[in-house]
Specification:
297 residues; 11 helices; binds zinc ion
Length: 297
């Protein structure tokens, strides 16, 4: 239930953050972007209102995007899964994980639509990560940097200390941001065009503050695989559309030329959502994923 309510709030963030003139506090009430009607509390219930109104505005009958119920259901499902994985309820670690997931969901859906990641999420995360690491050092319990810097007695009591957690957090931010800057520089040198958006750099830097340096590298690895699969899928989709048109119009365009066109059209794919998948997987399955791939860095 809490996830559904947060999801409804994330929908407002996804709509408002990238748009000029809209902020999280202004306008106060949600309204229909088509007819401007303010929503009553009955029209503002997560998931239920969309279902009851059959996905349409009650005043003007304009269809409401499936993204609204989808984000709410996704948030609720991920919150439930996270609570199940994190164990004893409630815990500070659980709330931090929920917070990071909420940021990733907003970044993902804004990036899909606008090809940018809101600074409120990425820079906000970079500010919050050190503060939260000091407040909740248990976040970095698995990090070997944090364990190395913690004295035996504290480790024996089952955790890492605050300064050690802060060190792991800062190392994670430097590695997360640094590796993407390096890849971006290499990419521009090889292809002669911007290969990496700065939004992605800031997002992985912020995430590194929560999942540590090893976590950031593994998140990037998983994100790259996910993006490659999506990229090939995107290319095939364009190729299919192009070949359909060739068949309809009988232009006799060759497969090779269609493939070249599809490659250009399919090139524009945001990286943020796939990076977000990698970060989310590491956040929830650190022990299984990072330990197995890297040993505990
Ligand atoms: Zn309306």
């Amino acid at each position: 239930m809490f996830g559904l309510i947060v999801g409804s709030f994330l929908n407002a963030a996804i709509h408002r953050l990238p748009r000029e003139g809209l902020t999280m506090s202004h306008p106060r009430r949600s309204l229909c972007p088509k007819c401007g009607a303010s929503l009553t509390w009955k029209e503002n219930l997560p998931l239920l209102s969309w279902l009851i109104q059959l996905g349409k505005c009650r005043s003007c009958k304009t269809p409401i995007s499936w993204r609204y119920p989808a984000v709410e259901v996704l948030t609720a499902s991920l919150f439930l899964l996270t609570a199940w994985i994190t164990g004893p309820f409630p815990s500070a670690v659980l709330f931090v994980r929920w917070l990071v997931l909420a940021g990733l969901i907003v970044a993902t859906f804004v990036d899909f639509e606008f090809f940018e990641i809101p600074d409120e999420i990425s820079i906000g995360g970079m500010f919050l990560a050190p503060l939260i690491s000091i407040a909740v050092p248990a976040l970095h319990d698995e990090s070997s940097i944090a364990r190395m810097l913690t004295d035996e007695a504290t480790l024996a009591a089952g955790g890492v200390d605050r300064v050690a957690a802060l060190a792991a957090c800062l190392a994670g931010m430097v590695v997360g941001g640094g590796v993407l800057i390096a890849i971006g520089k290499l990419g521009s040198a090889m292809y002669g065009r911007d290969a990496m958006g700065f939004g992605d750099v800031k997002l992985l830097a912020a995430a590194g503050g929560f999942i540590g340096p090893g976590g950031a590298l593994v998140a990037l690895f998983i994100g790259s695989i996910a993006a490659s699969i999506a990229g090939v899928g995107n290319l095939l989709r364009y190729l299919y559309l192009l070949r359909q048109r060739v068949a309809e119009r009988g232009t006799g365009k060759s497969w090779v030329r269609s493939l070249a066109t599809a490659r250009i059209a399919g090139r524009y794919l945001p990286f943020g959502p796939y990076l977000g998948i990698g970060i989310g997987v590491v956040l929830l399955a650190w022990k299984n994923v990072v330990d197995r791939l890297l040993g505990a860095i």
